[in-house]
Amino acid sequence: MSRSKTTLVALALAAGLLMAPLAMSPMTAAFAGDSDPLFINLTSDDGHRINMALAFGGKQHKLGHKLTVFMNDKAVMAASKANSERFAAQQATIAGLLEAGATIIVCPMCMKHYGVNKEDLMEGLKPGAPEITGAALFEDNSRTLTW
């Protein structure tokens, strides 16, 4: 066997020996509790992606999970009343989530970047701040997803 093939075989055997303890050790998956909070980081202005995030979050909220949606980057466009025609379906879903008790926070830096004023935000949405966003993101047992 050539030297390079011998080296490859030796490396493969060594890797197998190193991985063997991991394969034999019990693994546990992380599961969310019945009421663990869900923090959704929404960055897109794509209608389908927004729908997916809001629908998923809404279903989890109905199952008992506290829901916070953080709209940042281009997602702030869907939070603006000025874009109500383009995001009519998404804004209807947002209104329903707010009515059901979800919290929706909008990134103030992103608002400034995309020219969305506080007065332009849909009713019930609030600009974020480190204390507000951080409190939701770092709440005990919080789970986070992003779209």
Blueprint (SSEs and pairs):
Blueprint: H1 3-24, E1 38-42, H2 47-62, E2 67-71, H3 88-99, E3 103-106, H4 108-114, E4 126-127, H5 130-137, E5 143-146
Parallel strand pairs: 1-2, 1-5, 2-3, 3-4
Helix pairs in contact: 2-3
Structure explained in plain terms:
With 147 residues, the protein is an alpha/beta fold. The protein is 44% helix and 14% strand. It has a single domain, classed as Hypothetical Protein Ychn, Chain: A (3-Layer(aba) Sandwich), CATH 3.40.1260. It has 5 helices and 5 strands; from the N terminus they run H-E-H-E-H-E-H-E-H-E. A 5-stranded parallel sheet has the order 4-3-2-1-5, sandwiched between helices. Helix 2 (47-62) links the parallel strand 1 (38-42) and strand 2. Helix 2 (47-62) runs parallel beside helix 3. The longest helix is centred in the first third of the chain and has 22 residues, at 3-24. The radius of gyration is 22 Å and the shape is globular.
* Low-confidence segments: none
What's the architecture, going by CATH? 3-Layer(aba) Sandwich
DSSP helix fraction: 40-55%
Task: Write down the secondary-structure element order.
Answer: HEHEHEHEHE
